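PT: before anyone asks, these are the final sequences, not the draft ones from last week. 919 residues across everything. Please model them as a single complex and drop the result in this thread when it's through.
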Amino acid sequence: MPAVSDSALEGEKPDVLIIGGGISGASIARELSRWNINILLVEKEPDLAMQASGRNDGEVHPGIDLSKGSLKHYYIRKGNAMYGDVCKELGVDFRRVGQYVCFNEGWAKPLISLYVKKKKYIDKIEDSEVISGKELLRREPNFSGGFKFAISNPSTGCVCPYGLTIAYAENAVTNGAKVMLNTAVTGMKVENGRITEVTTNRGTVYPKIVINAAGVFSEEIARMANDRFFSIHPRRGTNSITDKKAGVYMHSVASIKELARSTGHTKGGGILHTVHGNLLIGPDAVETSEKEDFATYPESIEKVFTRQKKTMPALSERDIITYFTGVRAPTFEEDFIIEKGRKTENIIHVAGIQSPGLTTAPAVAKDVEKMAVEMLGGAQKNPSFNPVRKPIPQIRNMSDEERAKMIEKNPDYGEIVCRCEEISKGEIIDALNSPICVPTVDGVKKRVRPGMGRCQGGFCSPLVTKIIAEFLKSPLSEVRKSRDGSVITYGATKGRNSDE
Amino acid sequence: MSNYYDVIVIGGGPAGLAAAVQAKKENASVLLIERENRLGGILKQCIHDGFGLVRFEEKLSGPEYAERFIDEFNSLGIKALTLTFVTRIEKTEDGFEIHVTNRSGISVYSCNAVILATGCRERTAKQVFIHGTRPSGVFTAGTAQYFTNILGQMPAKKCVILGSGDIGLIMARRLTLEGCEVLGVYEAKPTPSGLTRNIHQCLNDYNIPLHLSKTVTRVFGDDRLEAVEISQVDENMKPIPDTGEIVKCDALILSVGLIPENELAENMNVTLDPGTKGPVCDNNCMTTVPGVFSCGNALHVNDLVDYVSESGETAGRAAAHYSKKERGTIAVKRGKNVLSLVPQMLDLNSDLGKVRVYFRSLKPLNNCRLLVKCGDSELFTKKYAFLRPPEMESLTVDFSQYDLNENSEITFEIEVTGE
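LR: through. Structure below.
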């Protein structure tokens, strides 16, 4: 539960209340902001994308492992195809880097070729093909020479998952939606099959309809709405991130498929070259009883690295700069739930969203938009809707001329604060002035990346803390890493009698 | 050319300052580029004493030590660009182009020789494979020191220190003096990593326990750090399962190693030595790329600032006289029991009369001798009562007295003489 308790939202009557500030909630908020309706998104954490949406590998999947009949399959090709345009509109880096599923067993090539044909003609995964081991090595010279063939999925992409979530939410806010962080739903009043009241730690709100996009907690929300017909069984996964120096080893997404030891769940993990130029290795998949079990364990990393070194022998644990754990929110059926309430009529569940939920989000949001507008019984278009979000400039990626122009306008762009990622003070201040201000060290880090490099904030975290304190006009000891309890410093040393 | 200097020094810490001062004394035109807003580098936050014992035979604080060089730097009228970030260095036909960004915009400076005095960074929690949650309150010692000494802010009330490197020991004392309870210093190795004098002055004098062969394996706390798990390690420094004990604390301070910062060097294809993690250099601190020099903690991690200044001066002197003439380099190799060795090459076309050599032993050794060989023949030996990896040894060698040629290969090894 968030520490804050006030009445900031007391009495609000939004047309749509979205519960959850992950990729699902944020993308739905943005699509609904095309309409002239009152949208409120609540998120219990101090920032967006704090759970599964900020703790995954950022792969935009091709859908090669999905078959007709599931909602995952229904949305994946649509979602994947939308990525180029959506990311362009929202000013988010996206690259179609392609994926290789690599095989050591030459005897399986005819079988797998048949499988890819089936995928092509029946499941409509049309661009996938089987390539030879030699061709694979030509495209990715640092892969193991032992591979006999691979499935190439050129539609696979990579994106910064929390960057996209924040961009969606910011664009929604710019178009009139309201996003409330540190706001948790604590109960609902359901009368005659309708939700009439929703209580939060910031007051009671009276929405016309509710969208349940609460991730691992979507079953709790469904229960409060008197409409629980599914269960979530959390499954954690850990990813490692390498130094950008290792990023040059490969440029795509890769995984190894070992036919002899094929296990149940999708996840032996893979290697992915991120949009930022690091390699991301993982995730594994471990059932857990804890919905917020974000701890990492050495076994996860050892297991994943042992496996992924078979794909790329140059991979080394020594190149790791950080690792993190996310918790997936699958249902027992392992498929999405995207439907109106079964007993309660004014709720839409967007639940059971796990991999490939990031890929499907743009398409799911469009469908939920339609469902919600229909449920509201007619709405007018938002005449001032602007689909374009202007991103914060990335000084490090600019030419000298562009940089010079930026610095001339604002000298803060010439003051480099994060040496590893080359992030300027100007970018940090831009992040603090962005439509959804999250004035914490992690909030700034997620938006413009200081501290994401090889020194992991060793040099820049005190500087970023100071910039935030100056922005907030508050003492340094008031600045937090993330949540309210994540104190960074405890106030002045003995020699000082005030905080500054 | 208005933006031309004979020597450009990157980094305004003790190495860069010494290099710039020396190059200027050799009559070169010099520009120093510093990322931060003030000169002095890490010394700015090292308010404890003990600096300068070798060089000045005085016990100075970090800022005092830096001040001596900054005063000389200023009196020589050397130009410094502060709050200026080098984005890239390009090799040109005549020398180098240094591209920089600062609050006034983008500029390019050219030079005949460039000195990389970029210092080092700290190894982080994840690089030593600490697991668990990601709360606030996990700091590298240098970051905690910045908060305490530069920003005047307390980063901890009750802390555990992992690693017995010098900064960790210094911070144990510093935080104790500020009223923080330092529960103990834990070291995975069976022997301390810091200087002996720091073990006495920073831990023993304050009754702070030092626990050897123990490491932090896990951290707890969703928001601020709440506790750490300490495990015993085996002889390979791997944690022994089920030896974990939970220690409640609000901060974990890490002093688990320093890594020379050589991203600029790597981008120029300078060869790095896996032993020092700094550039392979000759006796004049010149790297494998002619005209590119390296000194201080970017060259190899030093435990005394006096040696940092010394290598800065070597680099400054050589860079000022850099004339693009062909080198005749031969390798200087690490042999048995040698952890790191600088220089890694000798330039036969330069003065080999007084070559400063720095080395560390692979492990603690008693009653041993340093054996310097050329091929199979012994050049000279030097006896040591004991050698410890945390304490870098230095010596001056007159290589000019030996008959060295391009086929010579020098090896430094350490032999235990017994008893």
